[in-house]
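Now for my pick.
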Amino acid sequence: MSGDSDYFEFPDPRTANSEGVVAVGGVIDTGCVYSAYLQGIFPWPVEFEDEMVTAWCSPDPRAVFLWDQIHIPRRLARKIRSRRFVVTSDQAFDAVVNACAGPRVIEGVEEHGTWITGEMRAVYNELFTMGKTHSVEVWEEDVLVGGLYGVSVGGIFAGESMFRRVSDASKVGLCVLLRHLQQQGYVLMDLQQMTAHCASLGAVMINRQIYLEVLDASLKRPVDFGVIDSRSHSW
C-alpha cells in the first residue's frame, strides 16, 4: 500500500514513549487509520482538557492471541456446543460498533465512557464497506446479545472492542472467532492491551519488535476473512 495516495507514513513505532504513544492529533480518515494498522499502530481517542484528541499507539509489550497458547475452558466449550448462542459475521456491523461504544459491561463493570467517537465509528463503517473491518455477532433467539469487531491487516486480525448483554456472550463470540481466524490462515489476533477476560483464554504479551516483524511478514499473506456461522461448525 506504500504506493497508494491514501497511505500515510507515521513515525517509527519504536520511537513510542513509555506509554506506547507514537504521535498525537492529525486527521481521522480511512487512509490514515488503515495506514496506522499497516505500521503496527492503532488510534485511541482520549479526552484532554474537555476535548477528544487522537493518540496513535504502539505499546510494548503487546497483547496477542497465539493459536498454540489458546485455552478454552470446558464450561465455555459446552456452552458453545449447546447452540444456545448463534455466532455470525458481518451481519450487523453498525449495531455491534454502536453497542461497543457503550454503555457496556467490561469485566463485570458497566462503562459509560468510550473511545469510539462518532468520527471513529464513521471511519470503521467506511472500512467495513471496503472489506477491511469485520464484526462478529452473537445471537440468542434472534436477539443481538454480544459481539466484537476488528480490523483485518494482512495475516493479523486486530480486535478493537467487544460487548455483551448476557453472561458469556462476548466470550463465546471471541472463541468462535479465534478458531475461525486460525482456520482461515491468520497468524495471530492482536489485542493491543491485555484484559483479564482475554488472559483467561490464553492471551499472552509479546515484545513490540516481534509483533512488528510478524506484521511485516504477514502483510502479503493471502488471507480471506470468510464467513462465520456457528451453526455450520461442530465443537
Remarks:
- The two ends are 38 Å apart (CA to CA).
